[in-house]
Amino acid sequence: MATKLPKVPVLIVGLGWAGGIIASELTKAGHKVVALERGKRAKLEDYYAMHDEVRYALRHDMMQDLSKETITFRNNDKMTALPMRTYGSFLPGDGVGGAGKHWNGVSVRFLPYDFEIYSKTVERYGKKKIPAGMTIQDWGIKWEEIEPYFDKYEKMAGISGDAEQNPMIGKRSNPYPTPPMKQTPSMKLFMEAAKKLGYNPYNGPSANLSQPYKNPDGIERAACQYCAYCERFGCEYGAKADPVVTVIPVAEKTGKLETRTHSNVLRVLHKGKKATGVVYLNTLTGEEFEQPADLVIMTSYVLNNVKLLLISQMGKPYDPATGTGVIGKNYAYQTGGGATGFFEDKEFNSYMGAGALGVCLDDFNGDNFDHSDLKFIHGGNIRHAQSGSRPIANNTVPSGTPSWGAEFKKASLKYSYRTLSVSGQGSNMPWRHHYLDLDPTYKDVYGLPLLRMTYDFEEQDREMGKFLAAKSSEILKEMGATSTVPGRDLTSYNITPYQSTHNTGGVIMGADPKSSAVNNYLQMWDYENMFVVGASAFAHNSGYNPTATVGALAYRAAEGALKYLKQGGSLV
Question: Where in the numbering of this chain does the Glucose-methanol-choline oxidoreductase N-terminal domain appear (predicted)?
């Protein structure tokens, strides 16, 4: 039997980016907050001497333990879903800071088009442009409403970006708080080539600081050293924006944040139209506790947000047969298409870099180009990144090269400094038959059902991938590549190889309780004192990394939570 604890005013489930932002905002306003985190505590000193590619990049030391909890996967409902046993397709983080500790730092706002994607698509092309079964919908918020929260997130994180505004990515209220990062020779080559082709390249916004920075909360951080150990690693300089070095210290300084680590929430308790608290397990002692709360805010990873709601029987589960229900609806991933270029007469030092160091363009993202004669909507951000080619996992050779032996060695040595990539990070639209639910067979170490994912690439994704790959090859040829090799065409989605960690949807936001789970403050329609925050709120995935939009929505949700604590009731 669970030990019942005294009620707390605010309870946060998961202390990553979303949880850290909300904890910071609520404690600064004077509210006491308890945060439950299933993993261990983290601090800057933990990142010292972390340049171990085998331990962290290949053996996933900062990720969740799949032997205790994972998901099951299938491409369609005619297949039997099987558990994901090894890390590949995506990498949920573990411990205080969550995936915010090991991300690369690419920090781009979603487009104005994204928030009104259904209305804008129909307005320009008509309803026939949307294929049968595609379930895109407006998010219940417009650019003008969400832009101030992007601005607040960027000032907190110290995002480094181009001071010249790109008109394709939405009107800004302020420039980036720090200037763009350095441009390497290959980045300059991309910029020149893209401009010659008539495109509009710019420095990619980065959460890796270009210079020392002090944010509005008084947090001071050092500049990036371009060491190439960002993705899958913590930054020992604090140069990469991370909840552990930005928002969480602010909340702790108030004295009003209590963080309980090794505390895995098993279910949310509720009565009538309100959440009453949670039951969680101390993973070190095996003890169960019931923690009552006046306000419950779920800020765990996308997949865990959905799983907890389904296990707790909160909200109506999505039914793909009827298209009704909202919990588990509109799961989306990330697609793309790119190319690799081989240079005979140029050499590049690609072994230095930073997670978000790069240049990109949005000429083929969102609805910035005419889709009338194309077999897809939306698009992707085309980018040349220099995140750092760490030595073990990088060994690119031209197609047709033997995979072992003398010729392989010769080609490896020749092209180790003569290879560049241009890639398209493609959007992903939701479909009626893509969803998340509870697996009827497999359970986690706590005896609870695993979350089941039903998902596959569609013709929309394949057409977009080919399009982005062709544009990427075009840019590489203009850069002087002797030969280019496009990325493989998308076939059926396979969860095994790494592709992107950008899962979205399942607890989506909107303006109608019939088609969404949360309103534009991420407050649940069915439970007024429950907020569900994170990329689980995305009604589709854009052609960008999700973190900046998660950050903006977290600041919006924090404002909503403060309003609720003051006045109660539904905020919309």
Answer: 142-331
Half-sphere exposure of 267 (CA within 13 A, CB side): 13
Question: CA-to-CA distance for 338 and 30, rounded, in angstroms?
Answer: 49
Count of domains observed in the chain? 1
- Return the residue matching tokens 């979603």: 110
**Do the Cβ atoms of 503 and 535 come closer than 8 Å?**
yes
pTM as predicted: 0.96
CB 422 within 8 A of CB 472: yes
Question: Residue 65, Cβ neighbours under 10 Å: how many?
Answer: 11
**How far is C-alpha 508 from the geometric centre of its chain's CA atoms?**
15
What is the extent of the structural domain holding 150?
Answer: 3-48+55-567
Q: What whole-number distance in Å separates Cα of residue 415 and Cα of residue 417?
A: 5
Place of tokens 């020749």: 414
Give the type of residue at 526.
D
Q: What are the residue numbers of the active site?
A: 502
Residue 245, classed as helix, strand or coil, is helix
Task: Determine, yes or no, domain membership for 369.
Answer: yes
The closest of 499, 498, 421 to 461, measured between CA atoms, is 499
Q: Looking at the DSSP assignment, which residues form a beta bridge with residue 300?
A: none
Q: Is residue 30 part of a domain?
A: yes
List the beta strands (DSSP E) in 187-287: 202-203, 213-214, 220-221, 257-260, 263-271, 274-282
- 412 vs 35 pLDDT, higher one: 35
Torsion of CA 83, 89, 95, 99, to 10 degrees: -150
The amino acid that residue 503 corresponds to is N
| Alpha carbon of residue 304 to chain centroid | 14
Q: What is the pLDDT of residues 454-493, one digit of tens each?
A: 999 999 999 999 999 999 999 999 999 999 988 888 889 9
> To 10 degrees, what angle do helices 459-479 and 185-196 make?
110
DSSP 2: P
8 A C-beta contact, residue 67 and residue 442: no
- Residue 115's SS3 state is helix
Q: What is the CATH number of the domain that holds 467?
A: 3.50.50.60
Residues 499, 375: Cα–Cα separation, whole Å = 23
Q: Does residue 429 lie in a domain region?
A: yes
From CA 147, how far away is CA 173, in angstroms rounded?
A: 8
- Rg over alpha carbons for the chain, rounded to the nearest Å, is 23
DSSP annotation of 504 reads E
Token duo for residue 138: 């407006």
Confidence check: pLDDT of 499 > 90: no
Residue 572 lies in a domain: no
**In this predicted model, what pLDDT tens digit does every residue of 185-226 receive, in sequence order?**
999 999 999 999 999 999 999 999 999 999 999 999 999 999
In angstroms, what CA-CA distances link 350 with 354, 358, 415, 420?
Answer: 10, 12, 11, 8
Tell me the two tokens of residue 130: 């949307």
